[in-house]
Write a sequence for this structure.
């Protein structure tokens, strides 16, 4: 499984800085090792603690953290493979503005999004999430 710190160490062993690509790779590792629900918990807790440690707890956003895990896990399930294959097949994951396709800035900045889950308000995800923590999905076009 691994802790947030162990996964961070693994990501940073091949990176010179922690940018968006590294954040997605961290998420990919967490989903691989913990499953989607476990990754939501691990990533959310790790980012929350990191923001608090940096003196910026207000920067943590529960919806953003979970949405990135859910999107990454969904694409991992669609096309299993290594991280480079994942981002080659899904280059949108490397766009740090990806969530703006699904959420307005107002929704993501809301107190509800910062502390819990908020559904997309611009466009639905290409899958539906089960109630509670995400575990598995169904494609929207399959329903």
């Amino acid at each position: 499984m691994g802790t947030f710190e162990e996964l961070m160490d693994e990501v940073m062993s091949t990176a010179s800085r922690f940018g968006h690509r590294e954040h997605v790779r961290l998420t990919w590792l967490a989903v691989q090792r913990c499953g989607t629900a476990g990754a939501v918990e691990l990533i959310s807790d790790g980012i929350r603690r990191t923001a608090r440690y940096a003196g910026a707890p207000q920067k943590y956003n529960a919806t953003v953290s979970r949405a990135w895990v859910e999107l990454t896990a969904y694409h991992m399930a669609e096309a299993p493979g290594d991280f480079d294959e994942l981002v080659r097949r899904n280059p949108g994951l490397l766009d740090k503005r990806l969530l703006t396709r699904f959420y307005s800035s107002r929704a993501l900045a809301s107190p509800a999004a910062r502390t819990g889950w908020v559904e997309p308000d611009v466009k639905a995800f290409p899958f539906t999430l089960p109630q509670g923590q995400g575990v598995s999905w169904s494609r929207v076009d399959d329903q």
Remarks:
- The beta strands are 127-128, 138-139.
